[in-house]
Structure formats: C-alpha cells, structure tokens
Backbone:
C-alpha cells in the first residue's frame, strides 16, 4: 500500500494517497494533511506572522485543547500556519519569549532559507505538516514538567514510521539557547541541533528515503560509516577514539545507530553552511570545543574528509538549505504576511 514510481496508488491510507492521486480528497483527520505541493505552499504563505499566542488561541487552539496539550503547554508560536513551537508558562516566566521566538524564527529560516515567504522545499514541508511536528520547550531541559509531558505523549521520531503517532514533538530546553540572555554572545545555540534533526527526521527522511533514512545501506548511512571508520561506536562497545583514524567519534554510550545518524546529518549540514567553525556563530573556539566528536568543523575540511556527505548535502535535487539560519527570519518580499510581529 504505497505510492508507486509512476505516481499511481497501491493502497488506501489518505495521508499517502493524496500525494499520488491528485484528484483524491482525504476525509477529515486529526492530522494536517496537504494534498498537493501547490496547496501546501499556498496555505503556508497566508500565515499570521511569527508571534507568541496563548495555546488555546485560534486557529489551532480547539484542536490542541481536544488533545490535552493545554494541560502542559501555555503558549505557542505558529510558523507557516502550523503550531511549530509550544512552550510552558514557566519557560516564559523565567526566560521571557526570547528562547521560543529564537527557535521559531530559526525554524522558519530552515524552511525558507531563500526568504521568499513560503517553504522552499514543498515536499519536505508537506511531510512535516502531515506528521504534525512541533518543537516543545520547557523551563529547563530534562525537568519534571518535560518528563510528565513525555509520559503522556511518548512519541519518538526514531520509531517513525513503524509506530504512528498523531504528532511528533522534539524538545529543546529554554535554558539551552542563548536567546534566554540577550547579552550572551559566547554560547552556542543548541536549538540548531534539535531543529535541524527534526527537519531531517520528519521531513527529508520520508521524502527521500533512499538517501536520508536512518538505517544501514542508505546514502547518508554509507557516508557516515566511512567517516566513523575504525573509531567504532560507543553504544556497541567498539569505540576506539582517540586510537583511530575516523573523523566522527561520539563517546555517548546511549547514542545508538539512529542517534549517530541524526547527529551526523546535523553536523554535516551546519558545517557546510558555516555554523561550526566559530566565524558565524559563537563561540570563536568552536572547532576546539567539538573536536572530540567532530573533527571536520569547516566546509573545506568536511569536503576533504567526507566527500560523500558533502556531495549529498550540496546536491540540489534534495532541496536542502543553502544558507545558515540565524534566528531572525525576515522574508525579502515586502508584502509577506510572515514578517515578524
């Protein structure tokens, strides 16, 4: 029951069928499903701007209340017409709206890196919408409120698509971003890692499965295996760093193959776009800070050490971002309804 190569349909699931059969109109669903790329882009372009609203505010408030989200989250920020960032009242009380607005603006820039006012890769954005992705933010990373949320909504991107869920939340702590302190000019923004991982996991993975699926044998997996080389993996007790020649070596024993894969995609893309060598984002000594895990901190080093992933991440057929997101999304078009409010 899948979309066939010639565009015909071999099943009955509305969420997938609409991408093959352009005449098919799916029945109402809890998920936000776009039937065509054109409709997705059109709907996204009529967003009401990037601003903080109450969790129960229209147009998505009733839906989120029905799902019980209002019991855990007090505020939200819509990006391209979707509730892309949800955060707690405690986060806002302690840190203000800076962290959440920083994440929302960054998300918008990763989706529209050209500043056109609409998603630059409609296929990827359609998958993000279809799976109801969202970034969830708590006062501190790993606090009790976060644990309670995931007890209620134990939806893991690593389980996608074998286990279906009505939404896929990805967490980033309000204390993990320098936007919590406007005067902080030295801390690396961990939101880069979390946002980019979600976009790959839930957007690019299902759009280009032979390339970005987090399993052995895909193009990205083959590149990663070669980059890790003889350094091995901490999770299966084969880790040999620093006594090895590989350029990617992660010592976290809890990070399995899927985790390594997701981290690898984040490292590669942000490195190519200049986000890991300290000249665009703080700290200036970023290369030294990450060398125990990621040695190819510059675009040139990555191209030399890992030409396979460099070729994938710069291949225009996959529609990957070509500009680093700075968290200050400002579309070029003067009449865009996505301008900051």
Residues:
């Amino acid at each position: 029951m899948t979309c066939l190569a010639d565009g015909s349909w071999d099943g009955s699931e509305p969420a997938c069928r609409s991408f093959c059969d352009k005449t098919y109109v799916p029945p109402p669903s809890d998920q936000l499903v776009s039937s065509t790329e054109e409709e997705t882009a059109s709907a996204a372009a009529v967003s009401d701007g990037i601003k903080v609203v109450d969790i129960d505010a229209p147009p998505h408030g009733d839906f989120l209340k029905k799902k019980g989200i209002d019991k855990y989250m007090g505020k939200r920020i819509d990006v391209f017409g979707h509730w892309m960032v949800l955060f707690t009242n405690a986060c806002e009380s302690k840190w203000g709206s800076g962290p959440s607005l920083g994440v929302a603006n960054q998300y918008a820039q990763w989706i529209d890196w050209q500043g056109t006012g609409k998603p630059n890769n409609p296929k990827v954005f359609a998958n993000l919408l279809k799976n109801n992705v969202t970034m969830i933010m708590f006062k501190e990373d790993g606090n009790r409120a976060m644990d309670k949320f995931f007890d209620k909504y134990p939806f893991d991107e690593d389980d996608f698509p074998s286990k279906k869920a009505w939404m896929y939340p990805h967490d980033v702590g309000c204390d993990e971003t320098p936007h919590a302190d406007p005067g902080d000019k030295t801390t690396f923004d961990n939101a880069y890692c979390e946002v980019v991982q979600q976009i790959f996991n839930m957007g690019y993975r299902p759009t280009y499965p032979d390339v970005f699926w987090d399993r052995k044998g895909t193009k990205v997996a083959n590149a990663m295996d070669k980059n890790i080389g003889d350094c091995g993996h901490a999770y299966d007790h084969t880790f040999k760093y620093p006594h090895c020649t590989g350029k990617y070596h992660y010592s976290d024993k809890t990070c399995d193959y899927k985790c390594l894969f997701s981290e690898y995609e984040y490292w590669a893309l942000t490195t190519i776009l200049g986000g890991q060598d300290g000249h665009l984002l703080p700290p200036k000594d970023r290369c030294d800070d990450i060398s125990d895990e990621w040695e190819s901190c510059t675009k040139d080093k990555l191209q030399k050490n890992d030409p396979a992933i460099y070729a994938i991440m710069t291949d225009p057929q996959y529609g990957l971002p070509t500009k680093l997101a700075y968290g200050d999304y400002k579309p070029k078009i003067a009449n865009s309804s996505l301008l900051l409010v």
Summary: Residues 210 and 217 are 8 Å apart (CA to CA). The beta strands are 52-54, 75-79, 82-87, 133-137, 168-171.
